[in-house]
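Hi there, hope your week has been kind to you so far. Thanks so much in advance, here it is:
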Amino acid sequence: MLPYDIQLAGSFQARPGISIGADWTVDNATLAAQGLPPLTAGVSSISVNLVEPDTMFYDYVYTNDMTLSRVFRWNRSRIRAFVEMFNVLNLSTIYTRNETSGRSGTTRSISSRRGGSSSARSWIGKTKGKGQRAKGEGQKG
């Protein structure tokens, strides 16, 4: 604990990236443009796997979170106010990507820096030794 009941905490995580998949959606228009026969049995499109599953992976995901808090004491209670910041280094790691090839482009979903604040309150009670009673406890009136 730092001076003035200040606490500083942090965490660092390195998680492996998810498997990369790549699919190509083939429809009758694509086949006709290539001079190939259309799909049969009423099927309008099929999805073709371009990358063998679990052979390619995204980069590791690194996150660095921090918490700064202070404990305030008042009579028999204690209040802890804290501020949390997530993704402190703002690494902009790509978490997901549209892996379907075709007429539309690819999209990326990037993590952003987030934060929050809150407080917690707890009571500090007086402890009694074994076999001892507080004043007035267990007395008949």
